[in-house]
Amino acid sequence: DIQMTQSPSSLSASVGDRVTITCQASQDIHNFLNWYQQKPGKAPKLLIYDASNLEKGVPSRFSGSGSGTDFTFTINSLQPEDFATYYCQQYDNDPSLTFGPGTKVAIK
Amino acid sequence: QGQLVESGGGVVQPGRSLRLSCAASGFTFSNFNMHWVRQAPGKGLEWVSVIWYDGSEKYYGDSMKGRLTISRDNAKNMLYLQINSLRPEDTAVFYCARDMAVIKGSYGMDVWGQGTTVVVSS
User: Sorting pLDDT into bands at 50, 70 and 90, what band is B1?
Assistant: First the structure.
């Protein structure tokens, strides 16, 4: 099975900050990686697919990069509505999917 | 874009069974593979199961395998998850979600329901 790790598990940041989250896979998953945002009590929302493609309607301050085993998710100029938990998810092991443990972005 | 509405959750005793339902609207349901994802209280997301667009293939995650049956009724735009032999550790919010690819494989989820809560307790 493919294992996913994320770091940090949580962070505190201020509005306007640049935030970076990393996701690492236990084996090469090419670019088969998605990123989701989840706010408390709400369903997850797809932000980035195929490691670097922005889902339709998602603000351009969100971006993703990486391939192989190491991936990065960035929020440029953090906005108040961006405080949430972010998850990576691999689909190289299709049909079985695996989520990372999540990174909580909190207000400093 | 599409909408998904889950139902069927509730409080159930250990060892009992439950069937979750998910009503789809706003998209051609029969064109998409569909998933169930669960989230235990205060925990992360866990993929549970996927069913192919035509019901021909079904796959399950390891943690609940053997106790689950995923099914769909394309004529009614409905997705189901039968969970047997429920355990306290199955307590979670269960989400149904649409795969992001039309007909193809299992990639990820671009439309999610609001979730239905299952509490397993005596």
Answer: confident
Q: Across the interface, do B107 and A102 touch by the CB < 8 Å criterion?
A: no
pLDDT digits (tens, 9 = 90+) for A28-56: 999 999 999 999 999 999 999 999 999 99
Total count of residues recorded for chain B: 122
Contact A95 B105 (CB under 8 A): yes
pLDDT, residue B103, reads 77
Q: Within 10 A of A22 (CB to CB), how many other CB atoms are there?
A: 16
Residues 6+ apart with CB under 8 A from A83: A39, A105, A106, A107
B110 with A46: Cβ contact below 8 A: yes
pLDDT at B105: 85
CB-facing half-sphere around the CA of B84: CA atoms within 13 A: 6
Residues of B within 8 A of A91 (CB-CB) are 105-108
Residue of B nearest to A91 (CA): B107
What is d(CA A59, CA A21) in angstroms, rounded to the nearest whole number? 17
The model's pLDDT over A60-98, given as tens digits with 9 standing for 90+, comes to: 999 999 999 999 999 999 999 999 999 999 999 889 999
| Residue B109 to residue A11: CA distance in whole angstroms | 26
